[in-house]
Design a protein that fits this description.
This protein starts with 7 loop residues before the first helix and ends with a helix. The chain contains 7 helices and 3 strands. The chain is mainly α.
Length: about 170
C-alpha cells in the first residue's frame, strides 16, 4: 500500500520554506534563518520553539539561536499564547519593516563599527609613519593606500544607507 499523497498546498509550503533557506544562504546569512522566517511567515498561528524544531528537523538550541537573530532584525516577534508558558513566535509580515528597521539598521551599525575600526588603524599608521626606518616605506604605502580606499568605500556605502531618500522609499 502506497502512502497517502500530501495536499498540493503542503508541497508548495515546503518549497517556499526551502526557497527561503536558499535565498538567505546565497546572501551568506545561513540557510536556517531563511527557512525559519519562511516557516513562521506561512504559519497561520504563532509557533513555539519545539514546533519549529520539529517542523524543520533541527535542534531546539539551533532554533533558539536563530530566533534571537531574527528578533534582532525585527523579522519575528515573541507573542503570548493564553494558557501556555512556552515562548511563541510569529513573523513580521511587512517586508519593508523588516528591511528598514531590522536589516538596514543592523547594516548601518556594522558600517559605523567598521568606520571606527578604520580610524583606529589610521591612528596606528600615523604613529608608524613617525617611526619608519625607510626599509618598509613601500609596504607601508600599500597599506595606507588600501586603507584610504576602504575608508572611501565605507563612507560611500554609509552615505547611501544614511540617505533619507532610502528611508522614504521604504
Amino acid at each position: 500500500m502506497s502512502p497517502t499523497p500530501q495536499p498540493q498546498w503542503i508541497t508548495a509550503r515546503r518549497k517556499f520554506i526551502e526557497a527561503g533557506g536558499h535565498t538567505t544562504q546565497s546572501f551568506g546569512l545561513g540557510r536556517m534563518i531563511g527557512q525559519m522566517y519562511a516557516l513562521l511567515y506561512l504559519s497561520p498561528r504563532p509557533m513555539c520553539l519545539d514546533e519549529i524544531a520539529q517542523e524543520l528537523g533541527i535542534s531546539k538550541a539551533s532554533v533558539s539561536t536563530t530566533i534571537r537573530q531574527l528578533e534582532r532584525w525585527t523579522a519575528v516577534k515573541s507573542v503570548w499564547v493564553k494558557g501556555d508558558r512556552r515562548d511563541f513566535y510569529e513573523a513580521e509580515t511587512d517586508f519593508q519593516a523588516v528591511l528598514k528597521h531590522g536589516l538596514l539598521a543592523t547594516l548601518r551599525k556594522k558600517l559605523d563599527t567598521a568606520g571606527k575600526q578604520i580610524q583606529v588603524v589610521e591612528e596606528c599608521l600615523k604613529e608608524a609613519t613617525n617611526q619608519t626606518n625607510g626599509d618598509d616605506d613601500k609596504a607601508m604605502e600599500v597599506v595606507v593606500s588600501r586603507l584610504e580606499r576602504a575608508k572611501h568605500f565605507q563612507g560611500k556605502v554609509n552615505g547611501l544607507l544614511s540617505n533619507p531618500l532610502l528611508d522614504h522609499l521604504l
